Amino acid sequence: MVVPHTVELNKMSEWSARTEEIPGGLHLTVVAKNPDDTKTIARIRGLGFIGLLTQGFHHQPHHLAMARGDAGDGHSQ
User: Fold this and answer.
1) For residue 28, which of 53, 11, 57, 46 has the smallest C-alpha distance?
2) What is the spatial distance between Cα 50 and Cα 55, in angstroms, rounded to a whole number?
3) Is residue 72 domain-resident?
């Protein structure tokens, strides 16, 4: 779940996201593309992990598909 969301986060113009494998899972890093952009840095920190997963334009169609009983492309329920 984290790796596909990283792809979506990287589509956002102000963020850069990456994952790295760690023992037992993954480590997600999201930073502002502009290190002087304090507003974006504060937003990333404020959203936290779960909030970051809701960002981008992939989330709404996915949940609509789930509500209809279809997980959507590349997802399982």
Assistant:
1) 53
2) 9
3) no
Q: Which residue has the tokens 């959507």?
A: 72
Contact 26, 20 (CB under 8 A): yes
The answer to whether 18 and 42 have CB atoms below 8 angstroms apart is no
Helix (H, G, I), strand (E, B) or coil at 54: coil
| Rounded Cα distance, 62 and 13, in Å | 21
The model's pTM is: 0.74
Per-residue pLDDT at 76: 54
CA 11 – CA 28 distance, rounded (Å)? 16
Residue-level pLDDT at 59: 67
- Structural domain of 12: 2-67
For residue 30, give every residue at least 6 positions away whose Cβ sits within 8 Å of its Cβ, in sequence order, or none: 9, 15, 16, 17, 44, 52
